[in-house]
Amino acid sequence: MSEKYSIFIFEGGLGKAVAATALAEIIKNNHPDRKLIIVTPWPEVFLNNPSVERVYRYGNCPYFYKDYIYNKDSLVFKGEPYFTSEHIQKRRHIILSWCELFNLKYNNEKPKLFFNVAELDVIAAKFATRLKPILVMQTNGGVYTNEKPYCWTRDLPYFQAQQIANILHQQYHILHITRPASLKLNNTETVPALPKRELLGLLLFSKKRILIDSCMQHAAAALNLPSTVCWVGTSHINFGYELHKNMYPTLQKTSDHLVDSFIFDYNFDGSEHEFPYPSKELFDINTIVKSVTD
Asked: What is the pTM of this model?
């Protein structure tokens, strides 16, 4: 009897890939008699995942058509959840938009990451020897054009992040995750470039977490680690998790021209001329600190 396959193909950033681990389980639960094959820019996210038979890096799939498509009993799941109506209107999470797109039954599956003991030993050797409890703080992230140091739609304003670090470094050893071109925070240790699995696994050695809408907040949810997540131009309804404490700007918007907006209000690169607030003092610092220390 010939083997049967489900083939899940998607593009996007690292955080989207972590969210897609929920889809791996959903597809497998909906089609348990089929072996699940994943094609993604981030195959490392799916390593050790019990739902996945094989994972391929996008653009590096030799003999794929012959092995999984030609004269094979295969179901192909490929489509962009960002362009579903409910996602565009910020009424549905990306995982549920994928389910709608592919006509899959959802049974409360969540993103999941799997690490083995050898991997954890490597991460522990690098980060587990700090004298104070570790607080992971991500202030900048995502894929920007031209290595922008600050993207207002998702990043924490630098001076507010520094205020938070100045308060919390007395109690925590702060590991700061940021982009190479972004400003570094005083009273923190900047996390160097790491293999992606080490970066995500680092969260397992943290006591607390202050994150933004980027890969680490998805990973924290996948590891069942409640975190404080700060949102500016994106929404936890689309990309976040109720597990987290989701924070939004306390300022009222003073402009909303959206001259360059098409299907979405703001793009991930954060065009500066569309910044809608009267200042960059977006968040209530005391609320963020309290969310960590309570």
From this structure: 0.95
